[in-house]
Amino acid sequence: xxxxxxxxxxxxxxxxxxxxxxxxxxxxxxxxxxxxxxxxxxxxxxxxxxxxxxxxxxxxxxxxxxxxxxxxxxxxxxxxxxxxxxxxxxxxxxxxxxxxxxxxxxxxxxxxxxxxxxxxxxxxxxxxxxxxxxxxxxxxxxxxxxxxxxxxxxxxxxxxxxxxxxxxxxxxxxxxxxxxxxxxxxxxxxxxxxxxxxxxxxxxxxxxxxxxxxxxxxxxxxxxxxxxxxxxxxxxxxxxxxxxxxxxxxxxxxxxxxxxxxxxxxxxxxxxxxxxxxxxxxxxxxxxxxxxxxxxxxxxxxxxxxxxxxxxxxxxxxxxxxxxxxxxxxxxxxxxxxxxxxxxxx
Length: 346
Description:
By secondary structure, the protein is an alpha/beta fold. 31% of the residues lie in helices and 25% in strands. Helix 3 packs across helix 4 and helix 3 (119-129) packs parallel to helix 5.
């Protein structure tokens, strides 16, 4: 079970990066209403609306070209919307853009560190640009470098760092200003296992102990399932669903399944009594996967059939619907077990 979220956010002076101070939980961190972006005749983002609550990790998922990046670029001030509005911590991104951006920390997919500066200089520069008090810069920089395992690399220049270390440095640079909202674009893509785990663990700790709101775009559906309190799935420029991962999985119970592996491919392939069940074969026919709302009953039927036919079973495993199943049901062309839909709900 995910640990209860903290109801406190930014650190008090001198309390360390994990120190906390009271925050108002009654105001949404992000409010998006009818946000739209056109590129000439192309409607890239089509009247998108959703809210992100203070102190939650919010996942933003979608296939390539769905409108994820354009939405994030509008929210972070890099691209103006064609229509609609958005507010970050109560500040309109167009009419009060500077105040909105001051509440943000942004980590793009490509780690844009200053390659000719040292690790320490990169962090100190970001602290200065974001107006961190001079007396606080050294303390915060030192503590964030320690949190991401970069203390011993503080005098190394950016160009000497691996992709994983650059991504860690980008997080230090984004967090040194102690932002209310942290935007992360594919933060663990292409990273080694150790760096990816450290980043995921630190994101979770930030949220639990500081109450930092995190807006996470990712193609790693298991990562979203582990970290996010809610997710939005965008498809063809529109929001297809917004809910908790658990609720989204529960909306497609037909994607529950039982997986049976035989010692050899049976002939003929077994069938089950559920007329709505969908059967797939794998492992050269030696395995079957039955999609049905009643996987237990299907498993019993297949086991009985195998006994009667003298077929040996190697393993039987039942599976609930995954976030990947939800994603496919909303974004893939309808066919076979991927048919169905999930309604959007905020």
